[in-house]
Batch of 4 targets.
Target 1
Amino acid sequence: MGVIGSAASRYTDPMTSSSSTLRVALPVPLPHLFDYAPPPGPAPDPAMTGQRVRVPFGSRELVGVVAGIGQVEDPASLRAAIEWIDTTPLLTGELWRSLHWLARYTHAPLGEVISTALPGPLRRGEAVPDTHRWGWQLTDAGRDPQPRLRSGTRPQRLAECLAGGVVDEDRLDTLMDDWRSAARSLAKRGLVERIALAHAPAVASPASGPAPNAEQAEAIAAITAADGFAAYLLDGVTGSGKTEVYLQAIVACLARGKQALVLVPEIGLTPQTLSRFRNRLGIPVHVLHSGLNDNERARVWAAAARGEAQVIVGTRSAVFTPLPNAGLIVIDEEHDGSYKQQDGIRYHARDFALVRAKALDVAVVLGSATPSLESLHNAQAGRYTHLRLKQRAGAARPPVVRVLDVRKRPLRDGLSPEVLAGITQHLQAGHQVLVFKNRRGYAPVLLCHDCGWTAPCQRCDAPMTVHAGGRRLQCHHCGARQSAPLACPDCGSLALQPQGIGTERLEEHLVEAFPDFPVIRIDRGTTGKRDALETQLASLGDRAGILVGTQILAKGHDLPKLTLVVVVGIDEGLFSADFRASEKLAQQLIQVAGRAGRAVDAGEVWLQTHHPGHPLLETLVNGGYHAFAEAELQQREAAGFPPFAHLALLRAEAQQVEHANAMLSAVRALIPDDAAVERYGPMPAPMPRRAGYQRTQLLLSSPARRPLHGVLDQVTPQISALPQARRVRWSLDVDPMDLY
């Protein structure tokens, strides 16, 4: 991985005598490379592949990456590149080849794939950043013994942390929440300063952890014995100690002088994971997620590229981290849907991580308590080594699951009398309770009780969700907001009532019902700010109290005082048209149930439902997740759905539905009749109108991957040339996670 040298001077002469041209990948939605005459400097050479170059494009200037060197008969007819940005290639080796693979697999322009993979500053043509380690220390003024900081405040706590000398930023991450805002405040007053620390390769000094049980020891031995590429499905029940397996595998990786990349599905998991990893591994652990600013992300990317970052923990986009000295890749909660990018380049981080691991010739571990059906199928087919952890680690026992039939039962804001009594019992015993409802807001619908009117979104085929106790309406699909009307727009009635239950309404009721205990709501509305989730959970600590939340709380959090989980309103997930709905619901129920009883105290899980005899619930309660997965795989095979079929979804959006249908009909006509690919559509999307656009789709399906990609290879380059394509917004999603 090269570093940036000084850029060449701006090019002014459009003529060149060389017949060699630069073939440049640009971040534009066109499926080809662009030829440019080279800027002043060395003659074009294949060794320049992977270097960034600034070029004119229409009336703009863009930053592209040289993808090859070509020859033309008349180089004077080409526009000339403006300047080199790099003196050596920015992208080389495995990562360069893997990005080409991703462009081919997703049938996306190489320039857009590269743009997706690079941090913002590098996309904009900035230099690869300095990767000094940084620390903070008190200034002379800050060492003045005269008290000037209010006791108990963050600035005062930070000053105490720095009283013993310089503390590096990684260490501060483990000592304080939100220390950066306190540091900025103190720096403005001249009391602290940031200094560069001499870089020295960190030598891991791992702390001892708990002794692994027999199942963990077997998994650790298998992973650490891998010589070259091997894929492991670490299939362990919640609380079985999968993270301990990861840690010991990473320790072995570091002992060989190699790098480890750990992917986690949500930003909210990174603080807890980081703290545990840093304490155990004894070296700096670098983090990559969307909560960081562009410069922070670029520094971690550069540190990894230079081999300085030995352990990187990050969310989906961290899969593009350069790993010149790779030793291990871990994908935690591998089933999670957030690993799939749903706009732009629609890649799946788990699947791309597998491709990279094979190219890097290293082991990859996919961990989950509820593995995706695709991963289970691959394990059954022998493509993955299946490692099972069937017992909870330590003294923890599986929670007791109880299905509550709420038919004909009085419900207060969605909660039955039995649930309220159970919550009281657990709180009085000093424990914590999680009330789970996967719908944020106050209520799903605002309804006129007299005429039946419901508040619609004017831009989507969906009702607006009620927020702020009934005072505000918000569309969760396009983001539109408005005040709730005082009277029904149709009949003038004042009988407007929120219908259904969201997390805000549950919070309101529980605060009223349990005034002596803290009630903390965890959903997208309360965790938008940096470190908000960690701060919210820390505010509860070990006190008896209630957490009300969405699926954010179902993932990976270790809450030792939590002994009761109440799942409210699962019925809507039992009857969805989405072929993955049953899998998603089963995973969600198992994951949220796994939050209960993870320490010494036994846990309980109560499921409220109007359909206690539903086959999915009966299978999960009586047979567990694997019994459900086996039955679901049989149904998928009979129906011809993934993993027994391979799908590609073409979506088209236009303000007139006729334009969207015409475009997809033209695409369908491009597919040969003898192609071994089934075509469904054009047909309306499950939500036909969204954000003011009419949406239609064409679904392609094949029992084998090769015929499907053969058709896409043939058709995709022709789509941009279709006259119908100029009137619509369209996208291609290979291996779609849902059909919406």
Note: The longest strand covers residues 678-690.
Target 2
Amino acid sequence: DVYVFDMGQNMVGWVTLKVNGAAGTRVRMRFAEILNPDRSIYRANLRNADATDTYTLRGGAEESFTPHFTFHGFRYVELTGYPGQPTLDSLSGEAISSVLGDPVGQLTTSSALVNKMWSIGIWGQRGNFLSIPTDCPQRDERLGWMADAAVFWRTGAYNFDTAAFSEKWMRDVVDAQTPAGAFPNVAPDVLPAISEGAPGWGDAGVIVPWTTWVQYGDTAIVKRSWDAMQRWMSFIQNANPDFIRKNKVGPDFADWLAPDRTTPKDLVDTAYWALIADMMSQMASAIGKQDDATKYAATFDSVRAAFQRQYIKESGEIASGTQTAYVLALYVKLAPQELEPVMTDHLVKAIEARDWHVSTGFLGTPFLLFTLADHGRADVAYRLLLNETYPSWGYMLSKGATTWWERWNGDTGDPAMNSFNHYAFGSVLAWVYRSVAGIDTVPGSGFHEIVIHPHPDARITSVRAQYASIYGGIATEWTGTPDGPFTLRVTIPANTRATVFLPQIAKAGLTESGKRVHARAENGSFVVHIGSGSYDFRVR
């Protein structure tokens, strides 16, 4: 008399029960994300969450029950006490979310693996963007953990229209700021014992407004949050006058859940300080605060100089030699420019030493593929993206994931922390949107000034993408390989302009709609400037 229903998708919401039986009959529904080997439901990862609905029948006719005051994160529902034998129509799953409607970003590629990555990211965001950006929806937590949001926010803004959601949640973040100026680790702050935000966590108070401004070009969230962001920057600066961030770092989670845990915490923390200082300088310029822009640019320079003295050797080697250490130094532009090529080589060797797998955690992963592609190693970025063995994004999919996991090894990790719906590692999709599909923007223009820059690779031979920007739909569709031929169809909305980058293939010519195009050459690309309309570029 125990039945298990499979919704086919890890989701967030509830089920509606349809039942007909005698008055007083009690029907119990228990919720779970995965099954045990014996096909019973696995509940160890729920911790103290009951995740149970019980309904007592009134009797006399068919009855329908939907809960009003709870929601669950689940794929499987265990049904007991049902009078008779249930059918597939006895339970229906109903998904709920605060991001409504269809995704504003669409991706289809020649890789079934990447297509599935996009799909599970959509479901994970739907389920966790519910009033606040929860870290996970199923266990006794459901908190607005700040770092999860910070690293995912750009991907999330490509998936759905998050402008209003960002405005709402930043009010929660600012409300939770301590009198000393510290942003919290979770917002709303229901963990007062650790209110002082850790680097990467508290930094979301700067990263989320910056990301929202970049994606939508609206300075309202920047202006509304400016005083709070300045207090956070002062909080960090006052505690760390030598520009190495080691004081007032709260619980200091550092590069959370990285397979390689040897990256020095203060290295990660200092790099994130430089990251948000640069963001503050950009936002200050956008809202006309030039003195502040100069101040935060100077903060960045001071942190950069201290970082180089503390962590980077003249040989280009970096403290600990981890992937995360090299990624942060290169992505945040903390390395001396002349050492960037050799440090990129060191990063690739660190990846090779892991048998071409990732070893980054929450704070390093969002920048890993960008760093490789931006420094001429898109081939390695694609190799990591398309891996299907542990640790990798593809490993989760090979184990049947329908939403991203909390851990790279969620199937074997600690049951106390193995959420199967945790969106943070889904931050990788920002790279797919921006560097594979090639749809990007000049920061602060909100896609008024568009950048079309796909990075083709022989392992993915076609990509089609759309993004509904605030100016209208942007579309790219390309086929080919880095060695050619290469075809790119582009649609640019009205009242915008775009800079298009196409692979500069040796002895190749560039045409648009069959007509020869003269383009400038730049870092291995043909570069063309276009206005609104539809274009058909071919490199032969």
Note: Residues 265-286 form the longest helix (22 residues).
Target 3
Amino acid sequence: MGKLRVFGGSLSSGVYARIPPGSSSEDYTIGSIIAVRGIKRTFLAVVGDVHHRTGVAAAESLSGSPEPPAQAISQLRGRTLGSMVTLIPVAQTDSSGEVEEATTIPDYLTEGSEPTEEEVAEFYGTPDYKLKWPIGSPKNSTAQVPLDVDALTRGCFGIFGKSGTGKTFLGNLIAAAIAVASRHMEGQPPVKLLILDMHSEYALKVKDQLGRDYEKGVGQALREEFLSYTIDKTLEQEHGLKMFTLPARSLTIEDIVACEKALGLTPKFIELLPSLARRIRSWLRENRDSRSWLEWLVKADEEEVQKFFREKSVQPGERHSLLSARSRLQRLEKFEFMAWAPIQEDSASEVVQAIVEQGRSCIVAFGRYGDDALAYMLVANILARRIWEKYVDMAMRGQKPRSRLVIFLEEAHKFLAPDVYYKTPFGNIARELRKRGVVLCIIDQRPSQISDEVMAMLWNKFIMNLAEEKDIETATIGLPFKKLFKPLVERLRRGEALLFGEAVKIPAVVKVADYRQMIKELEQEYKRTLETPESRALAEAYGY
């Protein structure tokens, strides 16, 4: 492959470079990187497009021949038949050799070619396999692009892509990198994780495109790091995960409101709920009934309900709303993780205690409930509310948590859509808990369905293939040269991602690291850290 030569373009529309004679347009692929060695500085650029530039008429003429002469084609290619690439300049070296965002373009006729590993390292840095882990390689290079895990965990971040693009593989690698890097963060609280695992690919094994078990998820690879729970008794019995039990009496009005869409509750009932719940509690106290308002509403027989209506003077409109909601709330009875007996283990409190007081990471695997929107939203919202309350309470008392926390939230739009995010504890966490050390990793196929306010809070983004224009538009907010990068997003292949933000300061299009190899390296480093004096000192200092 010869050297490209710059012949035009601009910073906003991209730099145009001619493909040299002897090379073919087939040698260049969009998303690959090019080092352009200018007169005063070196530029790093991403190939945004490949074009046939000149010689269309000659090529058309030759294409009409049954067998165009090979010698004629050879003579014309690269001269009359000219091709070019559009380059997106993403970074440059300054006069002292320091790397900075691209603010100018290479001069005319400067040369560009595939960068050496040393040049890639000059722009992106090198992995140290402690705080900086390789997340992948540029499409045309074997050099590793490191992910600065400390920078990543300072704010909320997002993983976006269609189904089947490799989000779960990437999510597992990021979760493992956080767990390992945390053990190297000296002088600050470690980072722990709460993973809401819809399809049990973090707690158990990630699956290939055919749905077959492929390799350990982070919960199995880093067993010592995680307490793994499940709301599915089958997973408890077959894989030894701890059963997650949720007492009905622990549910609050806010929990029900947060799940109003999944439950199919009407706005009228939601408006009446605080008043109805208050009257139900009063009536239960008068009748010396120890049930909670929700337990009574779900379990009471018709005679009890009618008696309540009479004694508490419930109006006809209120009666209709309550009875309609009651039939919908009775869906909660089908969940095996719901506990209706007076005294039951409260796993939500146990998880929060493990994270906040014991410095443990936790996974909740949803098993066969993974596609049940109500089960997922109910458990996720309750855990988030408990975390929110705990961290706010500690702040009010002037207490500092033992650890920071990253919450992995799949199907994030269910909780962070414009019409619901202000009603859910996840919205509160995104808005107000970053300074308390709690951030979200939001994972979704449809970023356009997430509130703009939440999207604006993301410090880092990992974008895999997206097809819908509005999803691409939303996901690339904050990306330098957004207009030039947008066409790349819909052409990303499975396992490729566009990365940008504080943790990878120069935008990069990478082939995500081989999962099997990387998860094993992370597992080995994690086990090694368990035995180091520094690790033992951290465990003693933070009580885990």
Note: The longest helix spans residues 373-396.
Target 4
Amino acid sequence: MPGPVKRRLTVHQKLLLAAAVFLMVGGTLCLAQSPAIDLGEASLEELMNVQVYSASKHIQNASDAPSSVTVISADEIQKHGFRTLADILGAVRGFYLGYDRSYRFAGVRGFGPPGDFNTRVLLLVDGHRINDNIYDQAMLGTEFPVDVDVIDRVEVVRGPSSSLYGSNAFFGVINVITKRARDIDGWEFSFEPASFETYKGRATYGGTTKGVEMLFSGTFYNSAGQNLYFPEFDTPLTNDGIARKLDYDRYHDTLFKLAYRGFTLQGVETWRNKGLPTASYGTEFNDFRARNADQHQFLDLSYSSTLHNSWQMTARTYYDRYAYDGIWPYSAAQTNIDYARGQRWGGELQFRHRLLRKHDLTVGSELRYNLQQDQKNYDTNSPALYVDDHRTTRMGASFVQDEFSISSQLKLNIGIRFDLYQRYGASTNPRAGLIYQPWGKTTFKLLYGTAFRSPNVYEAYYGTGSGGNSGYSLNPDLRPETMRSIEAVCEQQLGPHVRLSGAVFWNYLRDLISLQQDESSELLIFRNVDKVQAAGSELELSTQFANGLAGNISYSYTAAKDQRSRQLPVNSPQHLGKLNVTVPLLSRRLFASGDAQYESSRKTLQGNEAGAHALFNVTLLGRAINKRLDLSTSIYNLLDRTYFTPGSGDLTQDSLEQDGRSFRIKLTWHWGARH
């Protein structure tokens, strides 16, 4: 049996590691001769009590939000060497990750069923819905359409938020806020060589001309990937189980923002082509044709203004397009094509007003029209059409939220949203939060809410009801999934530098949609069959100092139970631990950061276990070398641990080995007035 081929350092990796050491030593010498940065007189209270938008659809202190909220800033993203949105979420309390060599998946508070496509988390970019209108998938890895270097902050709002956002806001909302032109103020260029023959480049411009703020950014990425070993294919006829040059990953994305007075026009375009080395779903092993290709574009126009009597209005209209092509070779003579095309148009209108000095009232409405929801599945060599479904659907919604200041110490946040779907009818979801601040640095929150997720067209209409060979059966009678949640939160600031927060929660999920085998046709079919109950607790300690010293440590425990089997659900770790530390060095221009992540074992689809594991990542960042250059070196999975996560839905792949040790060097040049 061949050895674990991914563990040996290639010549490329050795050169990369040597270059990292050389560059950081050289950078250190330059930094030692540089004057210290004046960090100003920032208030430590302000550093610790960040403001958020996504919890209530307006800016407020995190302590006033009717949710447990985590904010990850651009500074943290840079210092910890996060490469993707998935990396960012992996460092967040209560989140855990999986990777099937095509897409990244996130579980939240003990719930992440394989094949879920991240449908139970709502993903936004500057408030714009990113979950597509075919699979409802939230893209988190290299498939996410925005480069992490143009992210200003990521707001993670835990708990059900359907009272504001509707479907998919089940376990939380992730709102990625991008940078403004003034945050760049000139040109930025970055280049990143990394392990596995990986290269990434980015060019970004931000500036203001005649009152118009303009931001443009473009990124390219190319990775050869790894040669991966799969023991189930270990025969001489299948290359001894080694998939060569099939783990490649290529993408490009562009973003532009134009802002003038209250108007903001934003456009995003991304294309990604990912090789499939896993030979999943019975496809040919080690076949170079196997790949997934995704495209996503959107155009979003928003307007904000203060009207008569201090009414604040926000309006938005948008257009989205999504395309997916899956190439699945089953033999040299047979190739299967999986195809999806989606388009949607929508609009949102929101008003906010302060009433009687005690009520902060927000009302809004939303209309979404799915112009195209097409799915096809067919063979090319011996032509056969298995799936050919075309849909257009509509939905509308309205919501109201009132933040009532009962006293200076006690607030009541109540809201309700009514959604009407053309195919699935109505859903009404309330939320209530009682927020008590008996002392200036102590906050208690008691939260209740419900959420729903409407079935997507893939779950309901991917398949054939009679005589076909798609392997799936139609089920247009699916019902929306629902959830009820109760949570208690305590947040305590211990002096000017330290904050302690804790939470206990209970979630009850009904009518969960999962893939089953139909007894009569023996085809696979999506059905509302599962009920899951989960209770847990979380504890987090955070520190923040003006000189850049920062740290965060958290622990999460979740006891989830499938109500049918009375057992732990698949892909549900009970224990999660996170540690993130940043230490300033050398006149505050050199920073050393490390993060550690621990996960207990997870149950797989076949009833086995993907074992517990601990990962360690380190990053060394040199900032403003010669006033223009940032230089960082990161090592991921520092101890080269071998670990597995459950497969994503294919029963033949019970668990998949994840990446071993890898390296990245990143250079960023700044050209502009600020630099």
Note: The first helix runs from residue 11 to 32.
